[in-house]
Design a protein that fits this description.
With 177 residues, the chain is an all-alpha fold. It is built from 6 helices and no strands. Helix 3 packs antiparallel against helix 4.
Length: 177
């Protein structure tokens, strides 16, 4: 099969007997192909891959997955089993590609410091709060008399209690313990 020109390749496929055309991906006469999908089934308008990065490619991969799912739904609704089977495989491939790209992007962002794991984030919060909590705990010592020390201790306990409640609420919202 010629690989240098599309027209030469189409002419070569056209000279094949009908049974051979199906195996090499030529149209099977019913609008579907053997292992491929008609170009009209999936909308690829506006696709320009020049200069695309992993990050900028993810929205395109999402659109491709959605378009493939829509084409699959249309093929199923039209009772086109062969086309639906082909589109099902393409849809799974699109999903796999999207998830792989998103996983790679997450790993890259973690390596670049754009994302932090929950453990790392908790360590950072703990490191930031420790000095402030230590200062708060020494607050009652600053009182001039017993009554002032008692008021400062009550204030300290109220602030520490709010910190604990805020942490517990944050974990609850985040789906933690």
């Amino acid at each position: 099969m010629p690989l240098d020109a599309i027209e030469a390749a189409r002419a070569w496929v056209g000279r094949l007997p009908p049974r051979r055309r199906l195996r090499c991906g030529a149209t099977n006469g019913t609008g579907g192909t053997n292992g491929t999908t008609p170009a009209s089934a999936i909308d690829t308008a506006g696709v320009d891959l020049a200069g695309e990065t992993l990050e900028s490619g993810i929205p395109r991969l999402r659109r491709l997955e959605i378009a493939t799912a829509a084409a699959l739904d249309r093929a199923r609704a039209a009772d086109k089993a062969f086309e639906a089977a082909s589109l099902r495989k393409q849809h799974l491939d699109a999903l796999r590609g999207l998830y792989e790209a998103e996983t790679k992007l997450i790993k890259i962002d973690q390596a670049r410091g754009k994302l932090a794991s929950i453990d790392r984030t908790l360590m950072m919060i703990d490191a930031a709060f420790k000095p402030a909590v230590q200062v708060l705990r020494r607050l009652p010592e600053l009182g001039r008399d017993a009554e002032e020390k008692q008021r400062l201790e009550a204030f300290m306990n109220a602030v520490l209690n709010e910190i604990k409640l805020g942490a517990a609420e944050g974990l609850r919202i985040a789906g933690g313990k």
